[in-house]
Design goal:
Elements (H helix, E strand, L loop, with lengths): L2 E2 L2 H21 L6 E7 L3 H17 L2 E7 L5 H13 L5 E4 L9 H6 L12 H8 L8 H12 L8 E5 L6 H9 L8 E5 L6 H6 L3 E4 L17 E4 L3 E4 L7 E4 L4 H4 L5 E2 L9 H16 L2
Parallel strand pairs: 1-11, 2-3, 2-4, 5-6, 5-7, 7-8, 8-11
Antiparallel strand pairs: 9-10
Bound molecules: nicotinamide-adenine-dinucleotide.
The site of nicotinamide-adenine-dinucleotide has 23 residues, from loops.
């Protein structure tokens, strides 16, 4: 039976630590971190995510500002709003909630954010710094995964880590970070994707599997070896009439059977997901210190 990697608890621990740090900063008269978020349009999921971020700020004593813009906002108008936040010395870090409406070029928007305030870690300058192993804002999900690995003291040195999925927000950065010359890292990394021909063979050699694919229960027990460490990033809503909200969340791993073989495993929900907000808050605290 595997040890369950409790992302919910780790996330709350981090938020408690940040709350304490805010109190200490207040006592010393230091600046209180201030996070801003820009939300364009009225996509339900985006509203939920942004509200959760604002609420987390309130919980730990950060200041927060929510800039709500209508769906019809032009790219030029959005860049102008970003410019205001770039120059506002009260704001330490900010995010532009993705996805954006189709008429707005996401890359152009990301590139207009001041890299020193880019607490989502998506600006090419910050991605480049991450690839070089320099101090930067790591993207939320990979940062959260590293934090879980660290807090459970999971050994990664010299281990074979198979990453499944190569998205810019999870798989690709995760493959870079796990191979870097510090802990958690120093693993031998294999990055796999939809064109990989021998996925099962590779997975059977893996000491650590990080899966970010979006295919519910894709990874089954016959694909993993004993004592593997499983980090399941996938979240898919599956219709379920027995639930109040009409759906349940399912990861990329067939949890019940893989758990029996694994040494550690993240559940879905309650694993990687809750870490995302705490990562953003950690980045905001760092931005406050960096920009003082
Ligand atoms: P994505 O949806 O952009 O891409 C999926 C990746 O899977 C692609 O790189 C593709 O090459 C790969 N892939 C598809 N089929 C494959 C196969 N048969 N074998 C190997 N690789 C294959 O990826 P994403 O944005 O990283 O999202 C992946 C999942 O993670 C989704 O369920 C998403 O909801 C979830 N997610 C969760 C969090 C979190 O905080 N927990 C954050 C981001 C994404």
């Amino acid at each position: 039976m595997a040890i369950i990697l409790d992302g919910k608890k780790v996330s709350l621990d981090i938020q408690d630590e940040l709350k304490e740090e805010v109190i200490r900063r207040k006592e010393k008269g230091k600046k209180i971190p201030h996070l801003a978020a820009i939300l364009v349009g009225d996509d339900g999921a985006s509203i939920t995510y942004v509200n959760a971020k604002v609420k987390a700020c309130e919980r730990i004593g950060f200041k927060s500002t929510l800039v709500k813009l209508p769906e019809i906002t032009t790219e030029k108008e959005l860049v102008a709003e970003i410019q205001k936040l770039n120059e506002d010395i009260k704001i330490d870090g900010f995010i532009v909630q993705l996805p954006l409406p189709k008429h707005i070029n996401e890359q152009k928007i990301i590139q207009s954010i001041n890299p020193k305030k880019d607490v989502d870690g998506f600006h090419p300058q910050n991605v480049g710094r991450m690839a070089l192993g320099l101090k930067t804002f790591l993207p939320a999900t990979p940062n959260g995964i590293l934090e879980i690995i660290k807090r459970y003291k999971i050994d990664t040195v010299g281990k074979h880590c198979v990453v499944i999925g190569r998205s810019h927000i999870v798989g690709s950065p995760m493959s870079i970070l796990m191979g870097q010359n510090y802990y958690p890292g120093n693993a031998t990394v294999t990055l796999t994707h939809s064109r990989t021909k021998n996925l099962k063979e590779l997975c059977l050699q893996a000491d650590i599997i990080i899966i970010a694919l979006g295919k519910p229960e894709f990874l089954t027990a016959d694909m993993v070896k004993d004592d593997v460490v499983i980090i399941d990033v996938g979240i898919t809503r599956i219709p379920d009439e027995s639930k109040k909200n009409g759906y349940r969340l399912v990861g990329d791993v067939k949890f019940d059977e893989v758990e029996k073989k694994a040494s550690y495993i993240t559940p879905v929900p309650g694993g990687v997901g809750p870490m995302t907000i705490s990562s953003l808050l950690m980045n905001t605290m760092n931005a406050t210190k960096l920009n003082k």
